[in-house]
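quick one, 230 residues, struct below
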Amino acid sequence: MHPLDNVVWQSLSTRHAALAESYDQARRFVAEISTIGAFLEPSARGYSSLAHLVPSGQTVNLALDAPFELAQPGWSLVAGRPMPQMVYERDGSELPSGPPPDLQILTLGAADAAEMLVLTELTKPGPFARRTYELGTYLGIRCDGKLIAMAGERLKVPGFTEVSAICTHPEHTGRGYARILTTELIRRILGRGETPFLHVRKDNVRAIELYERLGFRCRVVRYHAVLRRD
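---
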C-alpha cells in the first residue's frame, strides 16, 4: 500500500494515532479535532465499526476510493463529490527562502481558534473544528488585526504531510495570500524531509491551477463523502 492510499486511516494509525478514537476496523479524530474518519475497507464490517464511533444524528467526513453506495444500512449521504489528491513533485529549489519581506506571516494557535473557525465557516475549505489547529502548523495573515487568510497542516503519514484549510476572506482575494501561505508550508515541510500533498474539490478549477503552478500533480481522484449516522 502506498502511504497516501487510504490516507486518513494511515494517518490515524501512525502519526496522528494519539488524536484518534478507534473501534475494530474504524478510526476517527477526536470530535473537537475534526469530523474526519476512516475504516480499513468500505465493507459492512467497516461501516458497522464506524457506527460505533459516530453518534446517531451526527456526521462524519470520509475519503473514499469510489462514490458512496446508498446501500449501506444506517447511513445517509449528506454530500459527496470527486476530490483529487495532489502531490508536490518538485525539489523546492524554485521556492523563496521565506515570505515577502513586507508581509508578516503568523503562527496560529489556541488564541486564534475562534477566528479560524469564523474564516473557515465563511470560505468552506473543508472540515474544520475548534481544535483542528493541533494537527500541525497553521499559518495566517492579519489585516488591521483581523485574520484574513490562513493555511495549515492536517493529515500526516510517514514521509508525507498534507497542506489544508487554504482560505482567504472574500474581501481580500486576488492578492496572492493563498500562494504565499501554501509556498511557506511547502518550504517548511520539505525542510523536514517530507513530501507535501493536498486534497481539493474537482470543481475548484482556480485552486487546482494554482496548485499545479506551484508544482503539485494529481496522483489519484478520491471521493469526499459526508455521511450522517441514522
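Residues 1 and 10 are 10 Å apart (CA to CA).
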